[in-house]
From TrEMBL:
It comes from the Bacteria. InterPro entries: AA_ABC_transptr_permease_3TM, ArtM/GltK/GlnP/TcyL/YhdX-like, MetI-like, MetI-like_sf. It comes from Ornithinibacillus bavariensis. Residues 24-214 form the ABC transmembrane type-1 domain. The lineage of its organism: Bacteria, Bacillati, Bacillota, Bacilli, Bacillales. It holds the Pfam family BPD_transp_1. This is Amino acid ABC transporter permease.
Amino acid sequence: MISIEFDIRLDMIWNYKELFITGLWVTLALTAIGYIGGVILGLFLGLGKLSKKKWVYYPCKYYVDFFRGTPLLVQILLIHLALIPSIFGHSLGFFVSGSLALILNCAAYNAEIIRAGIQSIEKGQMEAARSLGMPKREAMKHIILPQAFRRMIPPLGNELIALLKDSSLVNVIAATDLLYAGKVVAGAYARFWEPYITVAILYLLLTWIFTKIIAYVENRYSNSYVPPQRRRVFSFGRTSVGR
């Protein structure tokens, strides 16, 4: 008969609380930089994949195929150990390498989300804008992208959560993130339940917070959303009519 005993020591987590706090901020910073940069670069890549010019389309296509078809861990190692040292002659640290790898990887996935979102808008929208004399660039900026953005929110939100968890892979180049804090505590005490459960709980908490934010944004930009002030006006109007 197998018996499992749990002897939880919270003091070891408390003794290294500063390390966990630092790791939390590093994880959030890597995720934020990687995601914002990935959305901006992904927008250009997504538009490039919609271009009819071959010299624009094919570089964007090959970029997306490469970063979607290779593991993020390999990309991090290539950028940190090969690309940056070959350009600058030395490493620029885990944060620069990790942020760059997350940006480039996230951009490839966001490019496909943005491309699909734009293509989901009826072609008549662009044709109507063009028939009114609006340049294609202005029509894309003011007509197509605002409508496509509403449809992009759920998959872009999923990409944010995925990037948050994937940022732990930067630990392979000695990043002082949440996973690093867990590894240090595990090595110091030769105990593994407490540090890694703590890391898992912190990631779970961050994921829950991001999920709530994404749900709010999705609801805020949905077609059925009614602002609170206007909702009160509607309610007052219905009450007056009822009387």
